[in-house]
Design a protein that fits this description.
The chain has 323 residues and is mainly alpha-helical. It has one domain (11-319). Helix content is 56%, strand content 3%. α3 (93-104) packs parallel to α8 and α9 (184-203) packs across α10 (206-233). The radius of gyration is 20 Å and the shape is globular. The chain crosses the membrane at residues 34-56, 62-83, 95-115, 204-223.
């Protein structure tokens, strides 16, 4: 019992309180770092086509890129999102720290910033105060274009910091999570260097290290960035909405595999603490399957699985005239 720790508090249980939504601005060196880690991987993607045309890409690169993409993406979807943000299940200390570390290696920002932003998003979804709604500027074509840019990437470049005392007091009280937060820089170095090291060892060549760094490091991070940001932007603009929500969240099936089930976004906003987002036949949700495996192995417990009764009620409300 010694390794039991306080569990995450969901966005729905975050007390509104009198505290402001924003608490200061990102320091200039950190803000420059944001630009670097947005721009450099994106430039790598733009260079990928000529780089791969007949040379510079091998099976080792493909396998390493797929492996690191899958692991770090699940660190975000299962760890940062469903666990730390929404408390969709409970975990012991070892897995809790592992999820925080692997999620940090996705290079989407330190864990305390990430979770605070996302709880704020749910508290004000598609309303004033939402850090990345595409509907903040209106519904005209120009406003929608501006909103898409803001939801997809513009908000990342904003220096305002979400008030952590208001949105994540539970994580601020967790010594392990505060340490992982402070280690974001070294973990970013690890997620870039480790693929290169493995590529060099597996091919026994310097060139193998270079190409692995490019594909399993830079390109992998850029792809994961834009898949995640697409859930913020596209999944609040287009798609089907079978469940009732207070916002414009929607399901966008083309992203289901790459997002590990996060693009089944409508049910998530209808029932944010639910451990499974893809609840209908054919809706593949890899993140939920991993949580299921963890549960079978005894690594997590008190999983908030969807129930037929609850799903029926959420869907039925949408079908009620005048609802």
């Amino acid at each position: 019992m010694a390794d039991l720790v306080a569990q995450p508090m969901s966005a729905e249980r975050t007390p509104p309180g009198p505290k402001p939504i924003v608490d200061g601005k990102r320091r200039l060196p950190a803000h420059v770092g944001v630009y670097v880690f947005v721009a450099v991987p994106l430039l790598a993607v733009l260079a990928a086509v000529p780089f791969a045309w007949g040379w510079g890409l091998g099976w080792v690169d493909v396998i390493l890129a797929a492996f690191f993409y899958t692991v770090t993406c699940l660190g975000v979807t299962v760890g940062f999102h469903r666990y730390f943000t929404h408390g969709a299940f409970k975990s012991r200390r070892g897995l809790r720290i592992a999820l925080a570390v692997v999620g940090s290696m996705a290079v989407q920002g330190p864990i305390l910033h990430w979770v605070a932003d996302h709880r704020r998003h749910h508290a004000f979804s598609d309303k004033e105060g939402d850090p990345h709604s595409p509907w903040l500027f209106g519904t005209s074509p120009a406003a929608v274009a501006r909103g898409f840019w803001h939801a997809h990437l513009g908000w990342v470049l904003d220096r305002d910091l979400t008030n952590q005392q208001r949105f994540i007091p539970d994580l601020l009280a967790d010594r392990d999570i505060r340490l992982v937060h402070r280690l974001f820089g070294p973990l970013t170095a690890v997620t870039m260097i480790l693929p290169a090291l493995l590529g060099g060892l597996l091919t026994w060549s310097l060139w193998g290290a270079v190409t692995a760094f490019f594909w399993a490091g830079l390109v992998r991070i850029a792809l994961l960035h834009h898949v995640t940001w697409s859930v913020n932007s596209i999944c609040h603009m287009i798609g089907d909405r079978p469940f009732t929500t207070r916002d414009k969240s929607a399901n966008f099936w083309p992203l289901a595999i790459l997002s590990m089930g996060e693009s089944w976004h409508n049910l998530h906003h209808a029932d944010p603490t639910c451990a499974r987002h893809g609840v209908r036949p054919g809706q593949i949700d890899i993140s939920a399957r991993l949580i299921w495996v963890f549960e079978k192995l005894g690594l997590v417990h008190d999983v908030r699985w969807p129930t037929p009764t609850r799903l029926a009620r959420l869907a039925r409300v949408e079908q009620t005239p005048g609802a």
